[in-house]
């Protein structure tokens, strides 16, 4: 085997086992994920309610609402400016704000990439904006929901296309499962393992920044919407906002742990991750808050205490398990007498 072919086997081995059902699975997920996001958007709003049976029991109203909002989502320049302004802000915050540079796990080439860790941004500025200008000034995200969804989906599609075509330039390290030779599957699953622009790592940036924080921003906008509609805020929507914010802040506080997770170490970056990070997370995870914005749920003291107990217990299990997994992958397994303490 020549030196060139040996290097090719390391950087770009051919993928033979295709995950997610191969070509048909990639086509199915690439189609149904955007449709599901749109379904949640059009079938759950203050115009027609949020009943699961809506498309069957009131088909005409559902499709009329969906058609109108879908068309308007492409012409809502305010939503598009808001979304891409937010994305640019996140990029600039990564670039300008100080942060630690950490090494990721060793790649199969033996190299380790550097990652800038400074994800604790934006939430404070959003809270300050609401405090200064009042809740009514922050309902714009709720009011422009369909346009924001379409802008996010377009961004996900464009990024997936960019990283796919960029993966053919130079000797890129490809994901083991993303070099099948099938254009649709490789575009979906992600061909390049760590697509970058200079030191800006596209995959890790999208994992925790624009979509995850936008999830909480959409929740805050929903809380502001409920206040403007009813003059008060229910315990139900406050608990949703609290739990979601808790999860996001905790994720940002433990940002270094993602460097050992499968998304970063093993998966390429394609449409599967781009649509998940940029569109699925902020606009489906916030569905509870959107529903509660126009359908307040009032909980008694015992209801609040029961929910808090369940949440704290579940979150403790989630966080301790994730920290233990990260320690194990990083060679710091506290349960092994042979662990390397580093």
From TrEMBL:
It is found in: Membrane. It is a multi-pass membrane protein. It comes from the Eukaryota. The chain crosses the membrane at residues 21-40, 77-97, 117-138, 144-165, 227-249, 269-287, 299-318. It holds the Pfam family ERG4_ERG24. InterPro entries: ERG24_DHCR-like, Sterol_reductase_CS. GO terms for cellular component: endoplasmic reticulum membrane. Keywords: Lipid biosynthesis, Lipid metabolism, Membrane, Oxidoreductase, Steroid biosynthesis, Steroid metabolism, Sterol biosynthesis, Sterol metabolism, Transmembrane, Transmembrane helix. GO terms for molecular function: Delta14-sterol reductase activity. The keyword Lipid biosynthesis applies. GO terms for biological process: ergosterol biosynthetic process. Belongs to the ERG4/ERG24 family. This is Erg24p. It comes from Malassezia vespertilionis. The lineage of its organism: Eukaryota, Fungi, Dikarya, Basidiomycota, Ustilaginomycotina. The gene is ERG24.
